Amino acid sequence: MARNLATCNRTDTVLATPADAWTDIVVGKRVAYAVLFAVCAGVGLLVSRVAWSGTMNRETVVVASTTGRTEFSTEVALSIAEHEQGLMFRTSIGDREAMLFVYPKPLTIQMWMHNTYVPLDMVFMRADGTVLRIEANAEPLSDHVISSGGAASGVLELKGGTAGLIGLKPGDHIEAPSMRAAAP
Fold first, then answer.
1. Between 176 and which of 2, 17, 45, 61 could a Cys-Cys bridge form, CB atoms 3.0 to 4.6 Å apart?
2. Residues 6 or more apart from 74 whose CB is under 8 A from it?
C-alpha cells in the first residue's frame, strides 16, 4: 500500500479537506511530546531513586537552638554533582532528615527549588556552624533565587517548617563533622 508523503496517510484514505491532514500531523506531534515527557519523567524518577538510595555520605548533624539540641540524619553534598542534584525530585523528607551542602570556602551561596517537590527550610551557616540566615518554607518548584545574604560555607536543608518548630534562629549553632573538616 502506498503512502502519501504530504499527509503521512494511506493513499486509499480520503481526506475531506487539507485541514484534516494538518490535524493528523498536530495530533501526531502531541503524541510524540507526550511520549517524550513520559520518558523524561521516568529518567527523573530513576535519578531521584539513585540519589536517595544512599550514594552520598551520611552523618549526624546536631542543631543547637534555644529550645535544645536536635539531631538529624543528614546526607552530605560535597561535590558539584551532588550540589546540583540536592533534594530534586524527592517527594518527601522525614522530620529528622536533612541535606547538608558544604562549600570549600565562604561565599554568597545562591539556591533555588527547581524540580524540588517538597517545601524546605534552608539554613545558611558560616564555617564555624553559626546560623547566618534561614529561608523558611521555600516554595516547591520555584526558580526564585534564594541567597545566603552574606558569606556562608554551608546550607542545611530541612523539611519545611522544621526550623520554626525547633526554635532555630540566626546566631544559633549547628555541629556538622563535614563542616569542621572543610573549615580553612
1. 61
2. 58, 59, 60, 61, 97, 98, 99, 100, 156, 176
Concatenate the DSSP letters of all residues of 92-161 into one string: ---TTEEEEEEEEEEEEEEE--TT--S-EEEEEE-TTSBEEEEEEEEPTT----EEEEEEEEEEEEEETT
pLDDT of residue 56: 87
User: Cell digits for 171?
Assistant: 546566631
Q: How far apart are CA 118 and CA 87, in angstroms?
A: 9
Kindly compute the dihedral angle of the four CA atoms of residues 8, 12, 17, 18, in this order, to the nearest 10 degrees. Answer: 20
pLDDT at 180: 81
Under-70 pLDDT residues of the chain = 1-54, 182-184
pTM score: 0.70
CA dist 119 and 165 (Å) reads 14
* pLDDT value of position 7: 45
